[in-house]
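ok trying again, last paste got cut off:
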Amino acid sequence: MTEPETHTLDAPGAELHYDVREGDGPTLLLIGSPMAAAGFVTLASHFPDRRVVTYDPRGSERSRRTDGAEESTPEEHADDLRRVIEAAGGAPVDVFASSGGAVNALALVAAHPELVGTLVAHEPPAASALPDSEFALAASRDIRDTYLKSGFGAGMARFLALVTHEGPFTAEYLERPAPDPAAFGLPAEDDGTRDDPLLGQNMRTCGAYEHDYQALRAASTRIVVAVGAESGDTFAARGGRAVAERIGVEPLVMPGDHGAFLGGEYGQTGKPDEFAAALRDVLAK
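nice, full thing came through this time. structure:
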């Protein structure tokens, strides 16, 4: 696989950065949110026969916001993805999208199914689709409120407690004492910054997004909703199963957990070889 070539793209309210690794095969777009292109280096290396495109979502790493807005929405991200696909050489492309990226990719397919041949939506944290959505959404709002009030460590501790929680959210969950940031290796002091793209820009809007299930069921895109074999009943896995049910597809079980495709990026290592092999099989069908 060639070294990635970086490009910039102007979008309303943002300057986007995306990378293209040239290959002879069809284009594969790898996306997360707010995880940026740097999170997909290992996974991209498993597809030297593909033309691989990665990007930094607005507000993440190299893609700076120019509008001063405090939050980003899945609709904005979906339109950014449309622009990246068109600028990178056109459609249709295959897409692997994880976590918030899966939410944004589903929004893209609902609006522009002609742009995507196959979408593998890996563990979208779709709180709005859960039977306990009232409490899941309240917990998500609390994360952002805590971050704005007390800073990164306090907000991220609540986020980690949420994403590792097994099973439905309840009123009792919301009444739990605030987790200790130190228990997660996080700083307890507030450094005053409020520019974290996960806690500040996407925390409320991502899970609260109401998917257009009618459009997704009617889309020409082949939609595969995937969950990790080791994810249990954690938040994003439950969201994936709920989305799959509403679209009318069986969830696909893939190796590992939520970060299974990572090979050391951001200090996390999953099962990247097994995961990439499973993804290749899915895309080949």
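cool. The domain at 5-126+211-284 is CATH 3.40.50.1820 (Rossmann fold). The mean pLDDT is 96.
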